[in-house]
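User: Can you model how pyridoxal-5'-phosphate sits in this protein?
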Amino acid sequence: MAEPDRDTTPAVSFYGWEHEKEHREEWLRCLVDVLDSEQWLSHGNPQVSTFEREFADWLGRDHAVAVSSGSEALALTFEALALPPGGEVITPALTFQATAAAVIRAGLTPRFVDVRPADLQLDPAAVTDAITPRTVAILPVHLYGLPAPVDELARLAEEFHIVMVEDCAQAVGARTRSGPVGTRGVAACFSCGPTKQLSGPAEGGVIALDDAALADTLRALRHNGAAASFRHEHLGRNAMMGALDAAFLRHRLGRLDRENTARRRIAERYAAVFADDPLISPVVPDQWAHASPSKATIRLPHTARDTVRTALEHAGIPTAVHYAVPLHRQPCFADLPPVSLPVTDEAARTVLSLPLHAGLGPSDVGRIGEEVKRAVKEAA
Ligand SMILES: *Cc1c(COP(=O)(O)O)cnc(C)c1O
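Assistant: Here's the modeled complex, given as structure tokens:
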């Protein structure tokens, strides 16, 4: 294969952090605000409580509890729910490790269920089959910024008197037909890590919910279990969001809707470029208008994926695989009973994520798309 001409082919980045330099003044303003406030304590910090209020209002829920990561958001939620120990939580295996680790950390058992072939989201039919008297919760993941079928799953949860918690880590701003992602579950957990849409040079997570008592428990748990000053009702842990992280996230929240619209347009452009290629299938929701894509995930013939990745790397196009090793095959979950998840296994062999961020212009998307098509043709 010919070497790319680095002078005429600028490399693109996967996450687009270099474009954040355009907002340098705003990021620095956040730092100055926190410095000048002279309030560095995370507990009771006005930046944190204001971010919580702004996030809850933006989403349309009564409460938001800011924590140190999306992983902690999930783990603290299951701890606060205090579901019967050993109960099963139905969740997909095509997700990040934190989804199921949170379940185990709360003394519960993940029950991995397959995704549906059309959009790789948790399959309500497979969930129905997996519900037993031991099932205590359903934990759908809105994968790749596409909405999981939470309306159907919420109906199942209601019918079987179990709770639904949403893992919204990848999908802040996505919508189902009935409303924003994160408004159907008893609690919805978001990540504000650097790879996610609502992020900054920071780590963080948010739990959105309507139950005031559960919100109080979560606020105590993130603060070493203290419900009042130095009165520790629970063991808890230190999972506070810091003042600077909150200031950064307040700034980013102010332009999130605009950026999500731009991302949606880029996803549509990718889909248009790939429309005439029978070997490439973008993973798309029922209607694009409802997604909040965080990467452009496509499916390839499974013999081609790794060759295509290498060819794209040579062309200066970074890619990622979400996820090559699904959770039912991860060493840390090896003690769980074996399950058969054919759609998940097939996806693990065939998915490829392409860069998708607001810094990509139409010509970047066109160039990446054409390189992908060429690499797939050569590899097939
Ligand atoms: C990123 C992510 C998490 C964890 O969030 P962190 O902020 O990285 O701890 C959980 N679930 C999913 C699906 C994720 O993508």
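A couple of observations from the model: The longest strand covers residues 63-67. The chain is about 40% helix and 15% strand.
User: Helpful, thanks.
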